[in-house]
Fold this protein.
Amino acid sequence: QVQLVESGGGLVQTGGSLRLSCAASERTSAMGWFRQAPGKQREFVAAITWSGYSTQYATSVKGRFTISGDNAKNTLYLQMNSLKPEDTAVYYCAAGANEYIVTTRPNYWGQGTQVTVSS
């Protein structure tokens, strides 16, 4: 069982930046971030595969968010810039056996960290 622990959420003004971190108890082939706003379904945000460091982004965050990580430390990051009120959500770290799984139905989830963007 892979344990995922997120950190770095908080309150920020529109246009500001935050960096989320996710510490994994062991290595997986792919990791990613999802988010869930109040009253909405959880949605995919970004993913990375450690072989080749390929990345994917949701259209809504492309150009503003950057996913990265340190595979040797089993740590994942999400740099969020130019934040908007609609980015307000609980952000979840996810891990999976491959890129398809981690972007659709991850094998493992973190507990989530709240990001609030004030207008």
In short: The longest helix spans residues 99-104. The longest strand covers residues 89-96. The helical segments are 99-104.
